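Input record, target 12 of the design panel.
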């Protein structure tokens, strides 16, 4: 298996426990984690490390100051933006090797200028019950495992 089959991108995450849990998923699936913009917490935060448990040392983490630096350094070929108002369900979206799966802030999502630029690449997780949105760590896990299933077939 390629160690870089997809990359998870978090835009200015706000809750350390979510980022810690996402880091743990990334280590478990051997996925790079990219954080764009300044998080609302220190990356030395105890709750972040506690959620990531003792796996934090195995995480491949990249940090970028802003969206433009991310684009310039990573030069992504295929970006999927996850938003509750996405154009296509994750189950109708083709995830390919090398995809960047991008997630916004817990309270605000992604900035409108990013959503506008990549409108055709917006993806949603179906919500049929009475909730506004899903937890960020859970959404990343669903997307990461769906990517794994699509790319590796199991």
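The sequence produced for target 12 reads:
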């Amino acid at each position: 298996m390629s160690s870089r089959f997809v990359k998870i991108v978090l835009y200015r995450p706000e809750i350390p426990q979510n980022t810690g849990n996402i880091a743990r998923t990334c280590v478990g699936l051997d996925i790079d984690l990219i954080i764009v913009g300044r998080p609302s917490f220190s990356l030395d935060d105890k709750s972040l490390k506690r959620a990531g448990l003792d796996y934090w040392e195995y995480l491949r983490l990249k940090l970028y100051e802003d969206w433009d630096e991310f684009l310039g350094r990573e030069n992504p070929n295929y970006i999927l933006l996850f938003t509750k108002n996405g154009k296509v369900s994750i189950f109708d979206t083709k995830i390919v090797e090398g995809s960047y799966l991008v997630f916004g802030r817990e309270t605000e999502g992604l900035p409108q200028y990013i959503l506008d630029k990549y409108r055709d690449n917006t993806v949603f997780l179906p919500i049929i019950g009475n909730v506004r949105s899903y937890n960020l760590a859970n959404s990343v896990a669903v997307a990461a495992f769906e990517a794994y299933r699509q790319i590796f077939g199991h």
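The two ends are 12 Å apart (CA to CA).
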